[in-house]
Amino acid sequence: MNDKERLLHDVRIAFFKRTEANLFLDTHPEDREALCYFRDADREFREAKDDYERRFGPLCPGGESVRDGKFIWIAAPWPWQGEA
Questions:
Q1: Backbone angles phi, psi at 62, to 5 degrees
Q2: pLDDT at 15
Q3: Are the C-beta atoms of residues 10 and 30 closer than 8 Å to each other?
Q4: Domain layout of the chain by residue ranges
């Protein structure tokens, strides 16, 4: 697994953890432990996403889609194209 694949894997895991915690909190909004877990998972996701995007470009349009006056969302290969 290369660096790009590893970082994307980390983003996916963190996203899953954050989403599951969010779903749990939908039905258990007073659970302090779950809220702490969600906050940690959210931080982990944002850090993993930021690290990936800093090195390999944006994961989705918005945010850092413009760099040096150029629209960079379309500059990298699309996810289904692999390493084009």
A1: 110, 170
A2: 96
A3: no
A4: 3-78
